Amino acid sequence: MPYTILLHILNEDVVVGEVEELPDPNSQFILLSSPRLRDGREVSYLLAETNRVIYPWSRIMSVEILPTEGEEEIVTFIRG
Predict the structure, then answer these.
(1) Could you tell me if 8 and 14 are in contact, meaning their C-beta atoms sit under 8 angstroms apart?
(2) Is 8 helix (H, G, I), strand (E, B) or coil?
């Protein structure tokens, strides 16, 4: 089951993509599929036909894991 993540890369724009497994802090890199900017545009430093990128942990400031459709939950408050 792929996870959609936001990669906050040092001195670069945030990159969105999918990973097959959640990132392991013991690994040397993250393998990101379908890299794109948050607004859906192509990442300027990647070729248009690139569909997988390896980012080393040393370049990553933080990782956000976006909820999957099944995990999203809407909480509302109703005052009566």
Answers:
(1) yes
(2) strand
pLDDT of residue 49: 93
Summarised one tens digit per residue, pLDDT across range 12-64 is 999 999 999 988 878 999 999 999 999 999 999 999 999 999 999 999 999 99
Contacts of 64 (CB under 8 A, 6+ apart): 5, 6, 8
Three-state DSSP string of 3-48:
EEEEEEECCCCCEEEEECCCCCCCCCEEEEEEEEECCCCCCCCCCC
In contact, 38 and 7? CB cutoff 8 Å: no
Instruction: Write down all domains in the chain, each with its CATH number in brackets.
Output: 3-65 (2.30.30.100)
